[in-house]
Amino acid sequence: MFSITNVAKTSCSKKKRTYPLTEEQQRLVEIAQDKRGSTAYNESITFELRGRLAIDRLRNALQTVIHRHDALRTSIGSDGFHQIVTPVLDIEIPLLDYSSEDAPDEALNKWLLAESQQPFDLYQEPLVRATIVKLSPERYAFNICIHHLVSDGWSLVAILEEISKIYSGCLDIPPIQQFTDYLQWYNQDTQSDTFKTSELFWSEHLRTVSPLRLPLDYSEPKQRTYQGSRISIQIPSDLTLALKQRSMAWNATLFHTLLGAYAHQMTQFCQQNTIMIGISVSGRPTHLAEHLVGYCSHFIPIYLKTDENSTWNQQVQRTKAALSQAFKHQNVPFARILGQLPQEKQQNQIQVTFNLDMTMAIDLVDLQAQIIPQPVTSARYAMGLNVIPELDRLHFDFDYNTDYFKAETMQEFLVNLIELLQGALTDSGLTDNHYI
Hints:
Blueprint: E1 17-20, H1 23-33, E2 42-50, H2 55-68, E3 74-76, E4 82-85, E5 95-97, H3 104-116, E6 128-136, E7 139-147, H4 153-167, H5 179-189, H6 193-208, E8 228-235, H7 237-249, H8 254-270, E9 274-281, E10 298-305, H9 312-327, H10 334-339, H11 343-346, E11 352-356, E12 368-372, E13 383-390, E14 393-401, H12 407-423
Parallel strand pairs: 5-6, 9-11, 11-13
Antiparallel strand pairs: 1-4, 2-7, 2-12, 3-4, 6-7, 8-14, 9-10, 13-14
């Protein structure tokens, strides 16, 4: 069982420090040991930068962030159950020059694909790497890749904010919040009555839930695989605005409406009235919510029932109630819950996921920046929808396991989901079943 004592709150030590892995981190170590999952948990983002880039200043900004945060100087101990924080860690940030290529963008895309397939050695720091690619005298690409073991989506937002401020010479740098602060809080929280009540809640639910009966296009592999692909689409601004307004009219959020639609579409796809969808939560306490870098997030299972005779409002209210109940017990990491179940019950607990993502941005003085889409060759789950807000519209990234599904099956699923969302604008009955 996870336990930690005498946790230091700063990185002032000149010696390497060792702490036990959390249950979620242990799960990632196990996955990484399987070559099929070795790159599935690489977190990568690439920005196109236009303007006069100060290359050394950008390098220094990232290096300063690494010096500030213990998690970015962490690797796994040889026993596979502990993490080691190195007091000082300098990384190389190479500059690739494709500016003389006939097709620099093609060269960049080829490099991004190759980079996405490079695994980390979790037993050897660093578990973060970065590269600057020159495409023309005033056009660059900046790629950061971090293993999920030491970072998550909330961490990446904090990292990008700090890089932006340090590069731009801003003195208002957020105070350091270390992952060891989280470890200490988590160890204390596991001893609380509230935590134990939540553990009981989840163990009772997971013992009775039936796994999804996904209609696979191929025979299910005997062992779990991570081969994947992604379909990306833009939701037009008029539909996005209308969905936000309809959500407000239902006294709900856009998250409730989108999840309600996704859940209904999934019940039709699987021909089940009750399904389980994994939702990502930050895992952070309030006092560590803003600037903590480390792997704290985890999934919680949301149990959703649908009725094809329901109105949209009824579907959204059911979704809202299910989320409210689950969020009361979100402090328990899913890996910890699974560890308390019989082995045969641990398989296929969460097969599909949904996430309303945070806006990822980098703001470097005198530069224009925008995200470059990442090549995707792996999938962590059978299916997963990530919704990204973009100004006045929504961006859908739909990842799926290519050992389970054909591309055309997933494209049909996504098209039907969009049609379902369009039907929400009238608050009529839910769309007829496309899969009968």
